[in-house]
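To assess whether ligand presence alters the predicted conformation, the chain was also submitted together with adenosine-5'-triphosphate. Input:
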Amino acid sequence: VPETPDAVLDGLDPEQREVALALHGPVCVLAGAGTGKTRALTHRIAYGVRAGILQPATVLAVTFTNRAAGEMRGRLRQLGATGVQARTFHSAALRQLQYFWPKAVGGELPRLLERKVQLVAEAAARCELRLDRNELRDVTGEIEWAKVTQTVPADYPAAVAKTQRDAPRDPAVLAQIYSTYEQLKRDRSVIDFEDVLLLTVGILQDRNDIAEHVRGQYQHFVVDEYQDVSPLQQRLLDLWVGDRDDLCVVGDASQTIYSFTGATPDHLLNFRTRHPGATVVKLVRDYRSTPQVVHLANGLLSQAHGKAADHRLELVSQRDKGPEPVYTEYGDEPTEAESTARRIRDLIAAGVPAGEIAVLYRVNSQSEVYEQALADAGVPYQLRGAERFFERAEVREAGTALRGAARAGRNDSLLDGAEDLASQVRAVLSTKGWTGRPPAGSGAVRDRWESLAALVRLAEDFEAAKPGATLTDLVRELDERAAAQHAPTVQGVTLASLHAAKGLEWDAVFLVGLTEGMMPIAYAKTDEQVEEERRLLYVGITRARIHLSLSWALSRSPGGRANRRPTRFLNGLRPGSTGAGTRGGVGGGGGIDRGAGRAAVGRTPAVERRPRSPVRCRVCGRTLTDAGEMKLMRCEECPSDMDEALYGRLYDWRAA
Ligand code: ATP
Ligand code: MG
């Protein structure tokens, strides 16, 4: 903990210091990835609190994910500032809603809807429509867009016309599904995540007494990742802030990756127009990544188009030189995964902690093959969004069992023959049905197994650090850690989607599956959507401090057809590629696929031999020839699950 308030300012560069010292009035920080925006924001609060200028309970720090909120609280504690609320928009709103609901509406707050997509499917069925999973994803996303832009069903068709949106269905039909969905929720007394924000906004708008109460509590606001604020979140922020203006926002327009939820960097870019007296600070020194990583990030952005790209700032790395990014093309996906796992094992052997390594992919369904490969290579890993280790049910249960065993002592027959501490822990856990072998697949069972495996590793580490320690010593250690709410010392490699990785950083980052169809994702059709995919890759690249690996596989399975192409976004940037990334929709990035045309020659009637645009798989981009697959618009074996992008944020919120 820094000894004096001024010491909090040490470790900030002059521009960051300006942010920290501008404690009154609106402040806006526009800067690229890794330039210390989050750090400047955190130190600003810590300095204000330590100097006695800000009362901690009056500060509300809004972050984008719960993990980011947790990290900010941790940093604030290290800087000697506690008691500040660091939350996501959703969790801050839900807390207020729960508090004010009985007074404003009466009764208890309705429960949160668990299976939104199912309810949308039901609503569609009531409108006599059967939607496949891709259509459901699109329709659900569209309803979310309507809600965050505060568009009611009746106004939806006009809103589509006005914004020239590419609606997934006839707007009138979609409005009908939307309105039925809302009715079903009311009938069942449930609310969805958008409702949490909408209801909070509604109550604060209608009830001045409640709004005044909230404004009395929070007086200073900071918002991280402001480029991804949705119109609804902006409205909520406006209501919180009222006519005061102690608001500090930071963001990077080039990292706008949630526009499918209605988020827009306009709020960030127009901040000065709305707040004429605002202090605007730009940061360009990149403290996170090596010059090699920064060079690639700058190169990628130099090919970007659109409004966000017009505001980009060239990053300048402050770190020593590191290794060049590694580009690898594999024959098939399992080989890509196995080789990635091997390289990760080598990095760990070379001294990089597993917790400092991440594998990032575009959609969650890509994780499975990496989970398998890492498990086979004996590398611990964790999926993003897990709850706090010592708070997990299985870990608490294991703790109780260990405490019981420690009391029974060495005479307990259970522990007979268990010569070391970790074996004792394994023996106790085996009474809970735990075995040393991981269960197949992913999901809750696997998560539970991973938690207990982490507990065993923790016992091993403890034993190594304190030879001769007893089970009682271990239990005491576990209690202390649980009390301090520490994460386990043994951390695994992070597996996460690119959306879930924003704001975070690792020493080594593996960006995998970088093929056309995945990056950009096949359903990115318009120029804007393709640009957003490019920004997503930018977010991925800029997560790496030192080691950066980019890879793709030409076919899905061994011996399969090599029908995939590397992402267009690396054209002209990676060795051996030519030309800049092309604009335009999927399939515009060079290389002409003539396969379908050739196969048709000779057997089909002349009238059908006219060149047709090939039907491509929505997920991997492969040209489809099978009639069933063409109807589905995706390969039979390609994932059809909902993109976590749509829900990652909400899952993250729920995990906490
Ligand atoms: P992103 O856009 O990805 O959210 P950011 O701009 O918020 O990035 P931070 O996460 O705050 O960047 O900082 C990136 C890294 O650089 C962190 O490890 C941080 O501790 C470090 N850093 C930031 N500023 C400084 C500084 N002045 N001196 C040393 N290290 C710094
Ligand atoms: Mg940040």
